Amino acid sequence: MVFLCHPDTVKPLLSSKDNHKSSLMPKIFKPHLGNSIFVQNGPEWRRSRKLLTPTFHFKVLRHYLKESIEVIGKHTASLKAKALENVDVQESMTELTLAILLKNIFSVDAEDTDWGHAFTTATKNCDDWVARRIDKPLFLLFDYLYFRSEDGKGFQKDADTMKRICKKVIAERRALHKARGGNTSAESNDRLDFLDLILFTEDANGQRMDDDEVEAQTITFMSAGFGTTASAVSFTLYCLAKHPEYQERCYQEANEVLTGDSVEFADLNKLETLYKCFKESTRLYPPAGGIARDLTEPTEINGVVVDAGTTVIASIYGIHHNPLVWPDPEKFDPERFADTAPKRDPYSYLLFSAGPRNCIGQKFAEMQSKIILAKLIQAFKFSIPDNAEELKLVPSVILKAKDGVRITMTPR
Ligand code: HEM
């Protein structure tokens, strides 16, 4: 296994179209995600990527934004009704991002369905099961042992719940489309949810996805979207709580930009200080700590030819903390991302990876993170609780803090 911590060395790895995801990825993720974009390689992956890219078109994002603001409003109101000392924002943001995805993917609120809570709980549980499995080498290596263990059975139960619900919802939606005449017009694209879009999307041969594909891609978007975004937002709130001068600037900026209830997509681009703080926080605490690939051909890395078949890890955390790339790397300094800062190699900040297999949800995740952060900063002042301990980071599938990200939230 080769471990890389510099932009120059990860570039050939991530810019290649041909390297495969590490074989550990399908082993860990396929049992609950199915055969989706996340685990596919080669032509199968290219087809999925083409079919799914339009689900994050600008017009669609505008619709997602409107829906998300409603969910954030409800979550903020429920937070205001609670005692807000020493809140684990990691947990709170996980709940919020799951609710947002449920709304954007299926157009439902968990409490208005008989399945929403079961679906989001099973999704979160699967994430936790995977994190536990990765920590136990025997379970990681041997499916036979894992699926006979209590952990494996718990995981399977939650994976089955997700799939059962998803199948039912897909069947109901197909029936609804049929009842409405079976198709969509391009003009209505700005009101469709993710499930509509992937049911209607067509490949170059005019072929749509079958039920198994729709199910796998839907579960994948739900699973890939919530924990990563929750972690990015939680660590940004933590950094802002530690740096009140930047928090105050973000607050002033949010009040200038987000004046009414309705927020236009273009408004989010005006949240410049907030965006710099988000980038700097996720440089320090990148939710995806690394990217694993298996080389499909011998590849020269830093003057050394590495054999085909070798697993190579591009360490996002390592690059983001490398003093050769980021001087004084542990210092929180959002000005590193100012427009006037010296230009950096695009591979030096890899929150969403880079190259052809970068995060397909990047624009969506940035939009969600900005609007969640801005709305929360308008509603609360964030501070670090008295006697708070230093964060104990747990490097797993997603970077988290062992005892949560604890913050005191004072309503404004
Ligand atoms: C701040 C939030 C997010 C972060 C930090 C993040 C990070 C990443 C990274 C680093 C990768 C590359 C993984 C690899 O190559 O092994 C990736 C891929 C992916 N992400 Fe995200 N992601 C975020 C949010 C989202 C959201 C909201 C969605 C969907 C709703 C999403 C869906 C995906 C998918 C489907 C892939 C696989 C793309 C492919 O292989 O072509 N992500 N993400």
Structure class: alpha+beta
Strand portion, in percent?
Answer: 5-15%
Largest sheet: 4 strands, mixed
Instruction: Identify the CATH architecture.
Output: Orthogonal Bundle
Overall 3D form: globular
Assign the CATH class.
Mainly Alpha
Number of strands: 11
Number of helices: 16
How would you describe the overall organization of this protein?
By secondary structure, the protein is α+β, with helices and mostly antiparallel strands. It has a single domain, classed as Orthogonal Bundle (Cytochrome p450), CATH 1.10.630.10. Helix content is about 55%, strand content about 10%. The chain has 16 helices and eleven strands. The strands form four sheets. A four-stranded mixed β-sheet has the order 1-7-4-2. A three-stranded antiparallel β-sheet has the order 3-11-8. Strand 5 and strand 6 form a beta hairpin. Bound molecules: protoporphyrin IX containing FE.
